[in-house]
């Protein structure tokens, strides 16, 4: 069954007159003459077959029906105005993404030119785990570490990855690193966030050495950067360093990989889940990760 919608011009004229309580003010708002507004209101009353105003000379008073109808129309037109402005502004406003420095530098920035509004993305990087408090983090969307649900936030698992050791080409030439056992005497880069060298050694069938065997950094990105500069060997996330390895700045060591788990997720305020820029960015980044073959199983998480 099709919609039964009244003439839109008549609806606008009636709603403006009812809101202002004055025909001339409504006419000024709509850039019409008062007589044109009056004509449109008459047309709407004919369409509805009911009176919306009581007329006493130049004085207009809403009928009970008119008062109820105008209140509903004002809410509907305000919603239409808000939705329209959101779409129009999406073509001009910047889009703020908060993420870790490593994700920004090694994964996101090299791909931004493939996003339709990539030139309007404003990157914000966090020193620790990115905050998902959208009331204070000055972000539209966050690339969150792991996929823990947060109250009032939609969390979409994005990327899963295993870990393996990486070394700079120069250090590999200088050091004799030909078996996992050789790492037990090497300088290893450690990270506070989730150091897993013990797990990797056990997976490789080697007794873990006494840890740490090198400097400890606040996160895996700094540990990997140190390895890239030839300062030691880092346990890196495959999904993040693939591009760096392809460019020849790092070399993977051995086939042993720690079992993959979700390392990043997309997070945004539940109240903005239909924002067109959030939807486009989320769709784009999911498709990019899927092309890499590192996409996490999809399940949107919303904590009550």
Automatic annotation (TrEMBL):
Record SUPFAM superfamilies: Periplasmic binding protein-like II, Winged helix' DNA-binding domain
UniProt keyword Transcription, yes or no: yes
GO BP terms in the entry: DNA-templated transcription
One function term, GO molecular function aspect: sequence-specific DNA binding
InterPro entries: LysR-type_TF_proteobact-type, LysR_HTH_N, LysR_subst-bd, WH-like_DNA-bd_sf, WH_DNA-bd_sf
Keyword Transcription in annotation: yes
Source superkingdom: Bacteria
Pfam entry (one): LysR_substrate
Key words of the record: DNA-binding, Transcription, Transcription regulation
Span of domain HTH lysR-type: 6-63
Gene3D superfamilies, alphabetized: Periplasmic binding protein-like II, Winged helix-like DNA-binding domain superfamily/Winged helix DNA-binding domain
Coiled-coil stretches noted in the UniProt entry, renumbered to this chain: none
Signal peptide: none
Sequence similarity: Belongs to the LysR transcriptional regulatory family.
Name this polypeptide is given: Glycine cleavage system transcriptional activator
